[in-house]
Design a protein that fits this description.
This protein has 205 residues and is α/β, with parallel strands linked by helices. The strands form 3 sheets. Strands 1-2-3 form a 3-stranded antiparallel beta sheet, covered by helices on one side. A 3-stranded parallel beta sheet has the order 4-5-8, with no helix packed on it. A two-stranded antiparallel sheet has the order 6-7. The protein contains 6 helices and 8 strands; from the N terminus they run E-E-E-H-E-H-E-E-E-H-H-H-H-E. Helix content is 36%, strand content 22%.
Length: 205
């Protein structure tokens, strides 16, 4: 928070308050020659406290992942708004489009196929990463049912995730798939944080 003091031609002094990208101008002294009353001081303190409560917003920004780890959701829950940094360059062999599951044969990768040809020269953004094969959803869901079908809690969320995979099978872009899974898990965990995309933001981050 930054205060810049200035005095008008009539001797009225102002405080310009810059806070979280918002400028608020508050008249501090109605006359340069009159003392500040205690009542006015208290009013000003209350106004500043209220402004802080309104404008102090916690925001986190991070690339989206395919079914992220627990700490990812801890971060979402700790802020008022979570922004998917989908304007970053898409990276292969990363967590953007894949994850690991535990099987009888050990840890196994499950990946969403992405058409990333030429991304090193073209600098493909995450928001532009297109899914190259729609069969991935059925493959992943079939494997998850096979591996985790008898585990506690699977029946509770079976219909939810079954429908989610079916819906995501028609998605063209990876970022939308990641968003839908993260949103669904937020609902399960009771996380009410606002989710948004950096490419839709009207402000420069």
């Amino acid at each position: 928070m930054l205060h810049l003091w200035k005095t008008s031609e009539r001797g009225v002094r102002y405080a310009t308050v810059f806070m979280c990208g918002t400028t608020q101008q508050t008249m501090l002294i109605h006359s340069a020659f009159s003392p500040i009353s205690e009542c006015f001081r208290e009013t000003f303190r209350f106004s500043m406290k209220t402004m802080l409560q309104v404008f102090m917003k916690k925001i986190a920004i991070l690339q989206s992942n395919y079914i992220p780890w627990k700490g990812y959701f801890d971060m979402i829950a700790a802020v008022d708004e979570f922004i998917f940094y989908d304007e970053m360059q898409y990276t292969t062999h990363d967590w953007r489009n894949r994850n690991k599951i535990k099987t009888q044969k050990g840890l196994t990768w499950i990946s969403i196929p992405v058409n990333s040809k030429g991304h090193l020269t073209n600098k493909l953004r995450i928001v532009d990463a297109e899914i190259s094969n729609s069969t991935w959803a059925n493959t992943h869901w079939s494997l998850l049912k096979q591996v985790y079908g008898k585990t506690p809690g699977f029946k509770l969320y079976k219909d939810l995730f079954g429908a989610l995979y079916e819906e995501c099978a028609t998605e063209t872009y990876l970022c939308n798939v990641n968003y839908k899974f993260i949103r669904a898990i937020n609902d399960i965990l009771g996380i009410k944080t606002k989710l948004s995309f950096s490419h839709n933001s009207t402000s420069k981050l």
